[in-house]
């Protein structure tokens, strides 16, 4: 069976301050394209929507454009940039670095729960 959908016609779109998420649902795959504008920070833009102090979504992703800094619950930090493939466990804050939008693809499956009111 072949299943094809376009992220340009997502099944769901979630807007939040300084960004948005587009989600496509396929059999066995939930795929997300997230766009974060300069000045976006999870604790300022998504925290109230999620109802948690930190992002509790597991991410498997790929950075298409821009840069993002991530700080884990334990205080450790890292920075993601174009071409980076990453696994990010729950319990983190993140923010856009610089003046360029950060665009990421997420294929962990949990992205279907991101920026969704609980």
TrEMBL record:
Residue intervals of the (S)-ureidoglycine aminohydrolase cupin domain: 40-92
Domain of life: Bacteria
InterPro entries xrefs: RmlC-like_jellyroll, RmlC_Cupin_sf, UGlyAH_Cupin_dom
Protein name: Cupin domain-containing protein
Source organism of the structure: Actinomadura chokoriensis
């Amino acid at each position: 069976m072949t299943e094809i959908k376009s992220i340009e016609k997502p099944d769901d779109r979630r807007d939040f301050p300084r960004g948005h998420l587009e989600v496509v649902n396929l059999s066995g795959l939930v795929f997300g394209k997230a766009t974060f504008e300069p000045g976006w920070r999870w604790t300022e833009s998504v925290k109230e929507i999620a109802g948690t102090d930190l992002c509790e979504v597991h991410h498997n992703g790929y950075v298409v454009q821009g840069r993002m800094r991530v700080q884990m619950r334990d205080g450790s930090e890292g920075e993601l940039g174009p071409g980076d493939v990453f696994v990010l466990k729950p319990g983190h804050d993140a923010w856009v670095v610089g003046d360029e939008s950060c665009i990421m693809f997420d294929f962990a499956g949990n992205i279907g729960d991101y920026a969704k009111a609980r």
